[in-house]
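Archive transcription. Copying these from loose printouts into the bound notebook so they stop getting lost. Printout 1 of 2:
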Amino acid sequence: MQWSRIAVFASGQGSNFAALAEAERAGQLGGGRIELLVSDRPEAPVAKRAEEAGIPVLLLRPKDFASRELYEAEIVAELQRRDIGLIVLAGYMRLITPVLLTPYAGRTVNIHPSLLPAFAGKDAIGQALDYGVKLTGVTVHFVDGGMDTGPVIAQRSVAVEPGDTVESLAERIHQVEYELYPEVVRALAEGKVELDGRKTVIRE
């Protein structure tokens, strides 16, 4: 199982997927290669993005399976068939069960639009605005069994400006995501991220 062989999981528009695919085309993922897109919504625009990029797509509807576990077992079989070493969640709107997480423990990462542990879960940008914080940002973290609770790999702050709306703040946060996620994925693909308990170090 090679860390450099990457599967991206996404459910929606796929803007972070597109940023990662563009980074790969530009040689900015180092030896990392996106070998597969996995989506739980066959109608999602991200599937078309992947097809246009020439990246294989696995589209599975969870409702076609008797349980979440059987759905994920099908995914794991395909990941193992392709020798995938790293799972990158990019707007994948499902909680992962141990069926998928156990064989990819420490090899599954997610990006979240806040400075975790603040504003975990849904609508993180709206939560930040409602709370009145002056700084929010982006977190890339390992995935564990909780909701945005895994060890933090990298964070970058974004200032909340007077008069910000969810849309205006989201636009600036997304721009940071498109820069930060490829940087972290490259470090992971190159084996430069060390995890010790909850602490991570990215080696140069």
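Printout 2 of 2:
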Amino acid sequence: MSGLPPFPPLPAASLASRRETVADALREAITSGRLQAGQKLTESGVADHLGTSRAPVREALRQLEQEGLVISYPYRGTEVLGVSQEEIENVLVPVRISLEKFAFRKAMPRLTDADYVHLQSLVRTMEEAAEAADAALLADEDIRFHEAVVTLSGQQHCLQIWRSIQPRVRAYFRRDASHYSDAAVVAEQHRELIHALRAGDEQALDRAVTAHINTHFKGAPDPSE
């Protein structure tokens, strides 16, 4: 099974635990680009690679299909889905703008000093990731920041929608993270979001969220091509 990093055999555990471990391994490989769009995944191949049975692999592939990271075809098996530039610009970015503008507005009056400390800690980790040229960590902290604000908004339906698109958003965050000429700009953008939240001006916050989400790399390689 090519494209996956080496893993030791999975420890003895329940089917659910093994499914999550398999799903995590495949999700990481897909969102990091180590598994490319169009690459075939077979239950037997993944099972052999990870040293497990086919049952948790089957369940993991079903989970990843629900997340939009793979697709299964009758008689053809399962293949990796890329995140195309067209999808980013016409689906993910517009959905995120609508969702996050609403969530950030709702979160603004609810945020406590402790919440701001947490958000600032995520920004500091972004800075450390940028200094270490760790694109994966940078993208993951970016995701954690946005999910934190959506969670703090108290809008459960927003959180459900966010989590449904999060795996594909994470995939394009991971793609874009390696294209910044100065990765420190990511932390600075999130500081500006914190400043806008603290300022209490909803219109200014809307503009800041919209400008931030529209920062993506149109010239980045399109995995669907």
